[in-house]
Task: structure prediction
Amino acid sequence: MNYWLFQCNPKLYRIEDRLNDPNPKITWKVSRYQNEIKCGDIAFIWRAGDERGVVGAMRLQSDPHLMREIESELPFRIGEGEYEEEKQIMVKAELIARTNLPADELRTVRELKRLSLLHPPYQGTNFRVSQTEGRMLMELIGGQKNA
Result:
């Protein structure tokens, strides 16, 4: 099993509202590492922007493949024309945790000093996470009351 960071732009997608939705099924675009991301991997949801940090975790339920975004995701999109009718390379996933781990706090954790999204450039959707980083993020999420 591998770990990943999947970045979300809150200007394009209402991630907090999505995390409050009881439906655990979600789809996510995969723009990089399509041959490495696998069913069973854990992806941490990284909220970009001013309040950046890890806000959730999901277990991937499929390998990346050509598909359309599931319909239940559409209400969380921001702006017209953001939804692409065409199939894209995506994964199916199940939300397994909601959390709030701000970037400033993550910077203080020794095991996370090299975490990719703590250092520019921040562009992209999918980022590698080492085994050590992934285990530490899972430990931090597990240690929160509301995770």
In short: The beta strands are 3-8, 25-29, 42-47, 53-60, 65-67, 88-102, 126-129. The radius of gyration is 14 Å. The chain has one domain: 3-142.
